[in-house]
Amino acid sequence: MYFTELLNDLNRVQGQLRLQNGLWNGLSHGSIYGTHQSEYPLIQIYADKDFLTLRAEVPGVALEDLSITITDDVLTLNGEIKESIFDANVKALRKERVTGKFFRTVELPYPVESDKAEAVLKNGLLNLTLPIKEAVKPRQISIKSE
Amino acid sequence: MAVAEKKLQPSTEKTEAGSFQREESKAIEYVPEFDIYSDSGAIYLEGNMPGVDSDGVSISVEKDVLTISGDQKISIPEHMDQLYSEFSNVFYKKSFRLETALDTESAEAVMKNGVLRVKLPFKKSVVKNILVKAD
Fold first, then answer.
1. What are the chain B neighbours of A124 within 8 Å (beta carbons)?
2. What is the ipTM of this complex?
3. Which of A132, B10, B106, B111 has a CA positioned 20 to 30 A from the CA of residue A85?
């Protein structure tokens, strides 16, 4: 239990650091997305025989600031965590949340039907449902007796 | 193999069916990232709490400590096996010591896109004029 706790904390810290590093490299190379792949956001992948489900934690990302592209078995998440808009006289006392642009590519375990993919963004969680391509699904081969 | 893996995952699907206490104790406590802003009228807190809806957040004040907590209830999709995971269900909890006199009674909180925003107005100081009478 204690180990899981540690691992979970470590994963989160790593995710945050990678975002910060990724952004820094991105900016220093003068490109929007950067040349280094940042492992942010954190993801989960689930599967059964027909579908893949990918979940990502994207707090503070609005629907219009998130884009998802799929090419065969590679999924790309592109997005931006925007700074909160306050009046000019509001001062920041402490900043822990990371803001800025991010991207992440994920190699999916199976090729998916990208045109039938469904994505839902709710409470800062992205839930993607991806139907697995028929061609790669396990097939039952009937055996005939002679 | 796949079935065994699934059993290791704390099932959050049962959470809503009344076993809240037991499930809550299973989730790992995590201190969420928060920004603090202020202007002349209020203090603003903004924190990442993905997976928590507005009903799942609790904000309480005891003496001079404000505590924000929330349970991330992400259920495993039905009949699915987890192949890969970088995060697991957490119980968000963070406390703030309130140094200045804040009017917690008129605090406002909004949850949007997994980010909690709390506004804590400063207590309005009551100006009391004392009349000086000539003797």
1. 48-51, 113-115
2. 0.70
3. B106
